[in-house]
C-alpha cells in the first residue's frame, strides 16, 4: 500500500525500512518495485536535498521528517543534480544520529576512483546499475543479520548489567551484615559492667578479703 504527501515522498508499509534516493523517475520505480518484492518498507525521494529533509538534517524546522520511524538502509544514486550521492553520504556519516545507517551507492558508470572514494567515505557497497533483485535480497539479508547481531549484543549487555547490579547488591548486603556484627562486638566489649559484676569483683568481697576480715574480728574479740 502506497501513500503520497505534499513533498512528493512515496511510502509503502512493509518490514525493513529503506530510504531510496534517485533523480530518475524510471530508476526510482525500479528500485521501489524491487524493494517491495523483497518485503521492504520503502520511502522514495528524488534528490539528496529531499533525503536530508526527510531525515531532518537540512536544518529546516519545516522539514517533512520521518517521525521517529527507523531507517534501516539508505540507497542512493551517485550522480544527481544539486547534491551527488557522495555528498549525501558525507552528510549522513557526519550525523551522530544516522552515521550508523548503512548507505549503498548506485551508479550506471563503473568508475573505479569514484567507487573507492565512496567506500573510503563509509559506503557499505557500490552497485552498478541496473540494480537487480538479487542485489536487493542480498542487501536485505545483510541488514537483517546486522540487526539481529546488534539486538543480541544489546541483550547481552543488559544481562551483564543486571548480573552486575545483583552482585553489587549482594556485596552491599554482606558488607552491611559484617558491619552489624562488628557493632555487636563493640557493644559487648565496651558495655559498662553491671552492678552485680562490679560487686563480685570488688576487693571487699573477694574470698581473701573476707577471710582477712573474719580473722581480724576474732583477734578483736580476744
UniProtKB/TrEMBL annotation:
Keyword tags: Phosphoprotein, Two-component regulatory system
Cross-referenced InterPro entries: ARR-like, CheY-like_superfamily, Sig_transdc_resp-reg_receiver
CDD domains named among the record's database cross-references: REC_typeA_ARR (cd17581)
Bias (Basic and acidic residues): 168-178
Annotated segments matching region Disordered: 152-222
Superkingdom of the source species: Eukaryota
Compositionally biased residues, Low complexity: 187-208
PTM annotation (4-aspartylphosphate): residues: 77
GO biological process: cytokinin-activated signaling pathway; phosphorelay signal transduction system
Domain Response regulatory: 17-144
Protein name: Response regulatory domain-containing protein
Gene source species: Aquilegia coerulea (Rocky mountain columbine)
Amino acid at each position: 500500500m502506497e501513500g503520497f504527501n505534499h513533498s512528493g515522498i512515496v511510502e509503502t508499509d512493509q518490514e525493513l525500512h529503506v530510504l531510496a534516493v534517485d533523480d530518475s523517475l524510471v530508476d526510482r520505480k525500479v528500485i521501489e518495485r524491487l524493494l517491495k518484492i523483497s518485503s521492504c518498507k520503502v520511502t522514495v525521494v528524488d534528490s539528496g536535498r529531499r533525503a536530508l529533509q526527510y531525515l531532518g538534517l537540512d536544518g529546516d524546522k519545516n522539514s517533512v521528517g520521518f517521525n521517529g520511524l527507523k531507517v534501516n538502509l539508505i540507497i542512493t544514486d551517485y550522480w544527481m543534480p544539486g547534491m551527488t550521492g557522495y555528498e549525501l553520504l558525507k552528510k549522513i556519516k557526519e550525523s551522530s544520529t544516522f552515521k550508523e545507517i548503512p548507505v549503498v551507492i548506485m551508479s550506471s558508470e563503473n568508475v573505479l576512483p569514484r567507487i573507492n572514494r565512496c567506500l573510503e567515505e563509509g559506503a557499505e557497497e557500490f552497485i552498478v546499475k541496473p540494480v537487480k533483485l538479487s542485489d536487493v535480497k542480498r542487501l536485505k539479508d545483510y541488514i537483517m543479520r546486522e540487526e539481529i547481531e546488534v539486538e543480541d549484543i544489546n541483550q547481552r549487555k543488559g544481562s551483564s548489567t543486571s548480573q552486575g547490579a545483583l552482585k553489587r547488591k549482594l556485596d552491599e548486603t554482606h558488607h552491611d551484615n559484617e558491619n552489624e556484627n562488628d557493632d555487636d562486638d563493640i557493644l559487648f566489649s565496651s558495655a559498662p559492667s553491671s552492678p552485680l559484676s562490679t560487686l563480685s569483683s570488688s576487693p571487699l568481697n573477694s574470698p581473701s578479703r573476707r577471710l582477712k576480715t573474719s580473722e581480724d574480728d576474732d583477734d578483736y574479740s580476744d
